[in-house]
Amino acid sequence: MTEYFELLDEDGHRIGRVKEREAVHRDGDLHGGSHIWVIRDVKPDGHFQVLLQRRRYDKDSFPGCLDVSSAGHMTAGETFLSTAVRELEEELGIRVSEDKLVFLFKQLVGGEFEFYGQPFKNYEVNFVYLLKPEVSLETLNYQREEIEELVWMDSEKIMAEIRGGNPEFCIWEEEYGRFLEEVSKVI
Fold first, then answer.
1. Which of 141, 170, 155, 175 is nearest to 38 (CA)?
2. Residue 96 pLDDT more than 80?
3. Cβ proximity of 170 and 67 under 8 Å
4. Would you say the pTM of this structure is higher than 0.90?
5. CA of 15: how far to CAs of 29, 33, 78, 79, 105, in Å?
6. Domains of the chain with bracketed CATH
7. CA proximity to 33, closest of 60, 3, 58, 55
8. Which of 51, 17, 11, 28 is nearest to 142 (CA)?
């Protein structure tokens, strides 16, 4: 099934053009995505655990890396919020209404990479959300076509690993730092 993305400007507004996913990543067009961070076990001192997904080893980009709890591209006709709700259900089996997601911030991310000998250009406007359910790994029904495994990890340990350059993580340091900052305001 071919996915189509609406192209966006830097503010996240549609510019009236739609392209196939492969062409967007070939050409480096700006498109939309949603990142959803899932946390649990919030302590009085502000520490908490973050759910990470390990991407499948056969993914077309960042294979085998530990990544944001749930994330996905905004397909044609979707909003950032509807994308977040859809991705949570598809990837983690978590059904939520839009009001259960806390908007944290908007960001521009991107870069040029190479996977399997092919160039991969990814430039996105992301809306970043927080979901704070009390879930366990046993109750999550994750999408095995996309995800190798789910891992709960201490929020501070993740930052130490990212800052230390651990290649096992494909989380943007700037995003994760801002996520920690914004979460401290809402938990």
1. 155
2. yes
3. yes
4. yes
5. 11, 15, 14, 14, 21
6. 4-186 (3.90.79.10)
7. 3
8. 51
